[in-house]
Design a protein that fits this description.
By secondary structure, the chain is of the alpha+beta class. It has one domain: Pnp Oxidase, Chain A. It contains five helices and nine strands. Strands 1, 2, 3, 4, 5, 6, 7, 8 and 9 form a nine-stranded antiparallel beta sheet that branches.
């Protein structure tokens, strides 16, 4: 069951679950599936990494010229899914993505390893690659260009903040009698959220 003290604010509950995942998941407890919609209406999904939870939203970074980047810029309604298998829990989020401020993106980019910074310049993400050698050549070119100084953030590389309108917490239960608690955004509520339980 869900602790009553955590039920007023979904971000408090999420933080508690995420902290548990950090101690029990073998790899990438911040991994989440991101679902977007393309211009033809076809959904697409891939794994990305949560980098921050702030200002009421879930933040990830990407190349804005990538497939997911162009999807989100054109159709900002997205869905996220965390699945922590070791905990037998998942969190499902539906919301709207907005671009983070340039200052926020600059600060995060500066915190990355230099090779990752260079990779952000070298990779023409989601576009056809003629060979692995071509990628390595571009990496070498940008490594030479920025080898001795600070690597600036590419103008096409930044972040999105997904502000949820719905957050569902799911806990595995015996005999498939799972626990499901859903938060719906509700401006009329004192907490800003309305909760309901769902049949498993």
């Amino acid at each position: 069951m869900f602790a009553q003290t955590q039920q007023d604010d979904p971000f408090i509950l999420f933080d508690a679950w995420h902290e548990e995942a950090k101690s029990q998941e073998i790899n990438d407890p911040n991994a989440m599936a991101l679902a977007t919609v393309g211009p033809d209406g076809m959904p697409a999904q891939r794994m990305v990494l949560l980098k921050d939870v702030s200002d009421g939203g879930f933040v990830f970074y990407t190349n804005y010229e990538s497939r997911k980047g162009t999807h989100v810029l054109a159709h900002p309604r997205v869905a996220l899914l965390f699945h922590w298998k070791s905990l037998r829990r998942q969190v499902r989020i539906e919301g709207e993505a907005t671009q983070v401020d340039p200052e926020e993106a600059d600060a995060y980019f500066a915190s990355r390893a230099k090779q990752s910074q260079i990779g952000a310049w070298a990779s023409q993400q989601s576009r056809p690659l003629e060979s692995r050698h071509a990628l390595e050549k571009r990496v070498a070119q940008y490594a030479a260009k920025y080898g001795l100084g600070t690597v600036p953030r590419p103008p096409h590389w930044s972040g999105f903040r997904v502000t949820p309108r719905l957050i569902e917490f799911w806990k595995d239960g015996a005999f498939r009698l799972h626990d499901r608690l859903v938060y719906h955004q509700d401006p009329s509520s004192p907490t800003g959220w309305r909760t309901e339980r769902l049949y498993p």
